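Handout, section 3.2

Students often ask what a structure token actually looks like in practice. Rather than define it abstractly, here is a full record for NACHT domain-containing protein. The first block is the sequence as you would receive it.
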Amino acid sequence: MGHNYKPTAITRVGFAYQDLVAAETLLDFYRNPQKYSWVQVEASDESFRAVDDVVACLADGRFEVTQVKFAVDPNNPKTALDWEWLLAAKPTGRSLLQHWAAPVLKILDDGLLANARLKTDRKPDAEFYKSLKGSRVVYSKIPLTIRTRIIAQLGSTAGAQKFFKNFDFIHSQPILEDLEATLWARIASDTDSAGWALFQKQLQLWATQKNWPGPDGRIRYIHLQQAFSPERARPLPQDFTVPEDYCVPDESFSDDFFLRVLNDDGVTVLWAPPGRGKSTFLSHFKSKLDAKKVVCIRHHYFLSLDDRSEGRFHFQAIARSLEAQLQEAMPDLRVRRNSTLGETIEQAARKVVAEGRRLIVIIDGLDHVWREGRDREHAEELFNALIPVVPGTHLVVGTQKIAEKDLPTRMLVAAPMEGWVELPLMNRAAVEGWIATQHRAGRLNLFRWPHQSKAKALAAVSDAFFGISKGLPLHLIYSFEAVARAGNEVTPDLVRAQPACPSGDIRDYYAGLMLQLSPRGKAILHVLAGLDFSPPPFALNNCFGVDDQSILGLAEIGHLLDFREMEVRPFHGSLFAFLRDDPSHYSTFMANSAPTLAWLETEAPPYWREAWLWITQATRGNAQNLIKGPSREWALSFVTAGYPIDRLINVLNHAEQAAFEVFDLASVARHRLVKMRAINADELQHDELAQVWYVAAALSGDIFVPAVLRADLSNLPASLIPALVHMTHKSQRGALVDRAVEELNGRITQNRHDEYISNDQQGDFARAVVAVLAASKNNEVARVLRFARGSGQADSILAAFAQSARLVGNVGSVFEAGKSFTGVEFDRELFACLCLEGLSPASPTPLKAGKHPAIRCLGIAKGDAVKGSNSGKDLSALFAGADGPADRHQTDIRGIVYNNFMSALAAALAGKPTKSWVKIPDHASESWLAGAVRAFEKLAQRIAAHWANTKRWPTLGDVFSWYDGQPCYERGYDAQSRFIAVRLALIDAAFDLCLIGRGLDAAYQIDDAVFSEARTSAFWLNELWLEKLTTRRISLHDPASAETFVATYMDELARTVTEFNERASMFGKLALAAHDHNKPQLAAQALRQAVDCLFGYGWRKDAFADDVLTALEMMIEAGDQDAKQTLLALAGAFHRITDYTDGDGTNHIRSEYYTAVARHFPERIAPMLNDLIRAEDWRYAEDLYNELPSLPLAQSVEGVALFSTFIMPNERIAVEKANLALDIATTLRHKVGPNVKHVRKADRYATESHQNSEKENAEAPKPGDFPPGKFSELIAERRRLSLFDISRSTVTEWLNYWDAKGRGVAALADLEAGLSEPRLHLEIESGLDTAAEIAAKLHGRSEAFKWLVRAHIARYGWQRYLTSKDEAEARLELVARDHRARWKDFVRETSKPALNLRESRNGLVIGFTRLIYFLTQVGELELAKAHTKALVDTFMAEIAQQPLDKPSWA
């Protein structure tokens, strides 16, 4: 087998292998500190030349010397460990043997050699292997011709014998990837993936740079402690978690802060420069509050660099979050419907004050609104809702100081900047405590003068750290890491040599550091800050080079970075913010980022290339690939590869934005449509996506997929997390188990009081937790049992634990749990473990489930002495009704029938009579269900007899062919429910009988012939068998039969039109079944189909087809003949739309399509109606009949003839409502009789009496009473009177009134001022179009344009389902008429979202049909055509998997 290494990368890979071999010795050192004094990698001492790859000095002063040789392809005979390779030499050169022998013999003669060896992945050839005994060459076994060559090279027989007696040839070592996994397994219990990544980067530095670590290049134990210690500094927590060792910077400040917030109402702004720990202090503050005395809610504009949620900046999302926190803290708070955030907080405050408590609201990270370029409008809305602060409330704001113009107006009014509270720096005692913690962890290589006490030395170093940091936490960490990683003994002078931060502002430290850094170090930082992604640690050399300047550059900035398993990030986000603010940042980034782009293009693993190449190209100025590259097919491949779907959404977001910037509107539509499907799959089809994701990750050829998913753990579906744990290498599984349990427990806690989270979803989280614990190396059975019993869902939770334990090979835990627990679902999994392990139930004794009927059958068949019943149960309850149970919903027919069968089988196997095993009431003895029960009894008898006579367990085919029950042909819900239950019971029984067969014979499988026989049964159903295989996760088929089942079922699905969610589920299960049966190619085919379905047309209430239809009709009206033909070509898609969706929300689209065809192809009307009537699609035929009078057909003689046959009231009403020519209308009235009077349905909202109307007129405030400047008072007065403006005419009337009075300019100014008031927004938006009209008259078109933009944004003008067609089109027509030259400006400026819509995650709102309408209005027909084509092409791709034949009339 070959290798995948590029020729240019082989040298680099060889060095990586050498580093890993060195790591073996270093891990020995870390595990046994007394073994070595020091270790050197690439020793520079000449005495070790040629055996200097790894030199280790033992505690007794002797040396272990190791030379490493890497073979690119160890299995290639050309790279074998053979004599020719060892003895080959150029005419003037020396052989490897000569190179090694000289230093080895010299060290040996000096009495300093403990061990000398070669370590290689090469494999010995046959001749060399014969010379070996263990790892030593036996000189006498060397062939004579070879011996002669050796003596000639080494100079003497004695020298040769001496060398081979003391030199080990350690061959056939693991390949690079396996060696790394093995080493990680050795250290995983001591550190995390970030510690391992940091160690590897340090090792590279030690191997390449002189005197690293300092002072002499010798690696000592403390250097390993610094890398691996769990006490090493981590990035400061940005979420709500407070570090365990956190100390407040100053106790007196903390006390004052608590008193201020807890005792006074008002606003407190806590500020500090970056890196001082504002968020951590506020988290500490919140954690110390007494919930009995205080209700505290919090929003953080920035959690961490991992957080990708856009909603943190949107007012609506923030309001929902704060309201949800209030509901959780105050379960009995009854919030009025449609209350604003301010009203909700006011209501909550009144309640807490009445209870003797206080309400505290914390808004943290406010500066990130400005820093990340977010629109301040949403922040203004938030603070307008929070201020003025209501009694009993204190608002705490955490922020950096930024320009007042970038801060919310009301906040500055309530809390002027001069009154802000600054968070102090750490005092001296706090710094001393932190340094002492690092020293206790072994990370501080403390220098001590002779006779100097450790306490004094530590105090001196602590003073030095305090002196340069002034107590700034981030600077303290940076400085400590810088001196610690250098490896030298730490002295006060060494500390004071670090860049200082006298101002307490970390930006001053960064500025000073930049002056000290090498040009290469600074360039690397600018590249990292400019990239949209964080490169993985293993790519740093590729991105920045392996020359000395690059390696040293990385070394000098290493303390600023956080090395994670799959990414290198800034230790603190303020670093990259500082760099991006540097005027030279962009030019430096562009000058130095080309190698990173080259890595993505040529060497990066597939995930990074797919997720980041196009984005990085665009960042460097070339966005063409980003715009044109992402396609639906690419998206399917991305998900099929197992990559996180939110990374796909990120690429599409960037692509959509890039396309919009160059006004490629068709590409914008393409990317948005695929993105929306991805979002829907992520949010609306959790189960299907998780199943697909698991199979994709399992099948992926990308070895980095599990690591990528681990890095994205917080965004994974709960059901995927246990699967991720299973597929993770054992070396990393323990740490992942802890992370996963913490993550899932956090979700359980977070969602416990969420009204939208059902018990089933909470159960899913609980089952995921125990499924993860099943993979733990610790015995977690007792813990899981306690957790399950306290959950209320013990059986299903323990079943999940049992299945997961079986899948990871931990069946012992299942048996241990089985000793103290029994339950229907758990016992089923316990039974499977017994069968698959070939154990009898008596083996792992005692099991509480010993009486489970299937387990009893297994025990009897295994020869156990199992007690059984002599008679079956009385099934009167099953027949309490006429033909079945009295309450079909409360009676488990399936379970009763199954248990009765297994009990009868156990009795029959034990030799007891089972005829008429159960008692059936006389009145029901002839019922179909009674016959089914008796058929099961006969099946039990036949199986037992067959086993007794042949000792051959029945096959699946035998079970179905021997069951002689008859299908139920009776129609009706009850009858079919009974049939389905019996069918399921037979499937259950057949599956468990196959398991017993496996338990009796490990070779028992379902072959093709047996499977074919089973499928002839009327009770067989592929779907039920597939459900069984995938829920139980057991492979029962042999390879041929598994392939037959999956392939034929896939073919059956391909020929059937089904709803897309069901289709996705079926294909996903087929992929899982194929994977479980080791059919990777078949699994990949099914997986691709499943992903295609996930990105297919929405199965419920998806109106995209209506957008397509509307777009086509618009283009037809604009004269596009291609659109007309496309309309007809899509007949199959629209005709069958209610078959591939559930019809809810799409049936009207089918009717509208028939109407469209009738409008543009009148010759198709007759055959279309004929087709609908033959198919008995009466609803659609009737809808079409009702639309015909409004179509051009109505003006023809044929139409008149048709309408003269209309006799139904709704048909005659349709004729009356049609705008017919006068002569045709007269003729029709003569034929169909007098006019039909029809009454519009009463508006159910228009119920107020005449008296109430008078009251409205009498009490409604008049516009004239509220002049400009008093608009907000007008709205407030209407609210006080509870006058709801149904027509939304108040603003329009007010504007028109004051405009007529000559005060239109002042009225517009007042209206504009109210736009920042969230309580006025709803009322104002209804008058923005009127404002545009007045602005055009008073100020001209330019000013009117601004109001039209505001109106289109506020009224959701691009979203056809959020505002009326007439209103939006009137506005678009006005823009096209008066502002045609600025149509692009209008589109750009109205793309800003008013709401945090899911599809607008990149800050873009773009219409589909309304944009097409606008393009036709401004004369951009080619753009409109391209946009329409994008919609049509996407629609056709989404439904391409369905076998949709065109109807005959098309």
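Discussion prompt for tutorial groups: The radius of gyration is 39 Å. How would you have guessed this from the sequence alone?
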